[in-house]
Amino acid sequence: MNNRHHHTDPADAFARIDTERLARQGMPEFIYAESKTPEQVAAIMEKLIDQDGCALASRATPAHAQAAQARIASAHYDATSRLLSVGCLPDQPVGLAIVVAAGTSDLPIAEEACGVLTFLGDRVQRLYDVGIAGVHRLLAHVDTLNEADVLIVVAGMEGALPTLVGGLVAVPVIAVPTSVGYGAGFGGLAALLGMLNSCAAGITVVNIDNGLGAAAAAHRLLLRMRRAHSNDGRLGL
Q1: Is the domain covering 96-228 a CATH 3.40.50.1970 domain?
Q2: CA nearest neighbour of 106 among 158, 214, 213, 179
Q3: 3-state helix/strand/coil string of 203-218
């Protein structure tokens, strides 16, 4: 047996890092911090930083942040989105994502999407508190919505906002149901089913409270736009 490689990284005991994800997918591996100890998250972040120069953990707690900041001085924690990050990918001038939120109660998930997009170097714009109970608030921004290359629409309760947005624009819409709502909302299930049954054709729906997944999907679309732009100097359709 060859025993030359006797050094073991602490993170290797509990995590197998995908060392080629950034090159393969255009985004590094994310850390899902929930159920991981603060020490595990900090160790994985250190390994990702050594590999990719940046790292991001979702669903992080203040304890995760404290452990990471003790080892990585530049680690930044945002309590609203629960994102813990170090560095980011280079800013990209091509492509715009707009994150639309129905109400203030949806902001943690909307901010998770915004934070992930920013970490990935994407241009992002926010349009918040435009739920359908005051539909005039959304209709005043239809021109802005049409300026986006991809929309992430976040809503709880009955989850109707993505259908309304999808009926107003030709932009790709990624719908995110949130667990916001009263008892019959069943922790976001009502919003999820409403979005899956949308009569606005072509809406994509991610899982309940999955702002990160929506941002990753939007990033994939923006990467294709940039590839088309770099190949022929024009934005491809």
Answers
A1: yes
A2: 179
A3: CEECCCCCHHHHHHHH
